[in-house]
TrEMBL record:
Domain Histidine kinase/HSP90-like ATPase: 42-151
Listed Pfam families: HATPase_c_2
Keyword Transferase: yes
Domain of life: Bacteria
Region feature Disordered, mapped onto this chain: 1-22
InterPro entries recorded: Anti-sigma-factor_SerPK, HATPase_C_sf, HATPase_dom
Gene3D superfamilies: Histidine kinase-like ATPase, C-terminal domain
UniProt KW keywords: Kinase, Serine/threonine-protein kinase, Transferase
Name of the protein this chain belongs to: Histidine kinase/HSP90-like ATPase domain-containing protein
The keyword Membrane appears for this protein: no
Native species: Dactylosporangium matsuzakiense
SUPFAM superfamilies reported in the protein's UniProt record: ATPase domain of HSP90 chaperone/DNA topoisomerase II/histidine kinase
GO molecular function: protein serine/threonine kinase activity
């Protein structure tokens, strides 16, 4: 297993209470890769996810959650590396049965879906996000450059 300093810092799980339902905990994990501008960060992010997701959601999540989250994480990280100057932060946030994956990068441009042909190597990421996520969007900070692309997945078994 890689040394955490080589792949980024980890923030421990944070417990908080939602305002609308005081009994519902919000749990969050964060990863800040040290090599966020290199393609190798995609594999490191998947490794972080495979260790982190079970701790966050437990054993009651739907069967495909891990595969869907890994695929979408890979797509968002690849987009950040290829088009947005690299990844700065990755967050997983669980509130009830909603898992929010957030990938922050250095660019301010909003990702857009492209019409990829069968011969194109790229251009399917946002279409996959749209197809698999319950919701997705982009947040921008007023104080730092860059954006955060987020998506939400249900953890509930069908």
């Amino acid at each position: 297993m890689a040394d955490d300093s080589a792949i980024g810092s980890h923030t421990p799980t944070v417990h908080a209470r939602r305002r609308d339902n005081p009994q519902q905990r919000i749990r969050q994990l964060m990863w800040r890769p040290v090599d966020g501008g290199r393609v190798a960060v995609v594999g490191r992010a998947r490794n972080w996810l495979s260790r982190s997701l079970p701790r966050l959601v437990g054993l009651n999540a739907r069967i495909q959650l891990g595969e869907d989250t890994e695929l979408l994480l890979s797509e968002l990280i690849t987009n950040a590396v290829l088009y947005a100057g690299g990844v700065t932060t990755v967050r997983l946030r669980l509130a009830g049965t909603v898992l929010r994956l957030t990938v922050c990068d250095h660019a301010t441009a909003t990702p857009t879906a492209r019409a990829a042909t069968t011969d194109d190597e790229h251009g399917r990421g946002i279409a996959l996000v749209t197809a698999l996520a319950a919701r997705w969007g982009v947040e921008r900070s007023r104080t730092i450059a860059g954006k955060c692309v987020w998506l939400e997945l249900s953890t509930a078994a069908a």
